[in-house]
Design goal:
By secondary structure, the chain is α+β, with helices and mostly antiparallel strands. It is built from 3 helices and 5 strands; from the N terminus they run H-E-E-H-H-E-E-E.
Length: about 140
């Protein structure tokens, strides 16, 4: 596990900005080490000091836009149905201004407000899909 140092000012500002956000927010190093998490992420058991890509299954990270966000120094956003969460997530990767190494990552569950076309409908009972529980 690599250890990354960030200034007290960055850590303090992260918590000022993100601690009351209702969804998990992570401050992440470009090598994917989670540096800090907001209160919601902490309550949900998000760890610090580990690489986010080492959490869950590898395919859960296939849509990660962190490299693009850092290379272009601009926020990236994806709204999509995430089958392993059974939710429509509004996901962001936002580089910290003045840093080539740090970004915020969060995903808000917007299933309640999402267009029906984003949410998989029931499938045929014989289909093998990961978007529903038809084969369980």
């Amino acid at each position: 596990m690599s250890e990354h140092q960030i200034s007290d000012e960055i850590r303090r500002n992260f918590h000022i900005l993100c601690d009351n956000f209702p969804f998990p927010v992570m401050l992440v190093h470009k090598d994917r080490t989670i540096i800090a998490v907001n209160k919601t992420a902490e309550t949900e058991g998000y760890p610090t000091g580990v690489r986010c890509v080492d959490m869950g299954k590898k395919e859960q990270h296939k849509g990660c836009l962190a490299n693009h966000a850092l290379a272009e120094q601009t926020a990236k956003r994806v709204v999509s149905y995430i089958d392993f969460r059974a939710a429509v997530l509004d996901s962001y990767w936002i580089p910290l201004a003045g840093s080539d190494d740090l970004y915020l990552h969060f995903a808000a569950d917007i299933t309640e407000w999402a267009k029906e076309s984003l949410i998989p409908q029931e499938c045929e009972a014989s289909a093998a899909c990961s978007a529903c529980n038809c084969n369980e």
